[in-house]
Amino acid sequence: MLRPYVMALLIATALVTVAGAVSLGPRGLISAPWTKDATEREIVRRVRVPRVALGFVAGAALALAGMAFQALFRNALATPYTLGVSAGASFGAALYVKAGLSASIGGVPGYVIAALCGAALTIALVYGVGAGAAGFSPATLLLGGVAVSFLFTSLILTIQYIGDVTTSFRIGRWLLGGLEVVGYTALLQVMPFIAIGVAVLLAIPRELDLLVVGEHAAATRGVAVGVTRRLIFLASSLMVGGVVAVCGPIGFVGIVVPHAGRLLLGPRHRTLGPFCLLAGGSFLVICDTVGRTAVAPAEIPVGIITSLVGVPFFLGLLLRGHLRLRRA
What is the pTM of this model? Predict the structure, then answer.
């Protein structure tokens, strides 16, 4: 587990981040839930608090899923979207927009249901490909995920190309990701997916450590490699599918945060898991706060902010790996 003072520091940072994001308005004004202004109080409680809460749990889920996929594939550059779940969910939402539908089931918006169906279809396709390989081979799983991702991305581009201007704009805006919510419905919709995934992944830190070392080392130490791989794939994909269905695809959280954790605390997943939850949530909340205040009253979608931060980090990882190879 994390050392007590490190955990205390992370929790304090997360609390300060959340409190600051809730208090900071679009014009840089500071407000609080107990403000005397009734309108301002309603905005804080019905818009800002649920938005910050959704951003925190979504960021935590994406960071933890990124950590799990990097262990599964033994690849430092794996992300929560490596297996195409994001592309599948985006295709479902794009198809819903193109059909011109406007409906909800049990209070759940139609586009969320369509995105969840797209994510479920992707999980089923990739799982089917992986199940055909002995031991749920990571290489086969990865190649199948990349192929499915390209397939759904092509279908999304086709829908945008044949759609009218309004359809193309709505799809394009959704693909940028966002946390624009009113009330707690979206948070309640995504929480079951995240809760299941977090519970599973935090329960198997030893297995994740051994998978990084190698499947033979894991097997000799009593890890059921095939079962563990399936568990990681399903738990991580479930979280990612839920987050993308509600928030749209938000990139780079799952690569920036786990690597920052490894640099600061080392590679042990018993330590890295809690770090990803707290730091991932704080990171996405900070990015969203920047996006909604930097050019107020307009907003920059949070997916753009995370990409602006993540791309230099990603290129730095590539450069660092290249320099390490040259020195070897």
Answer: 0.90
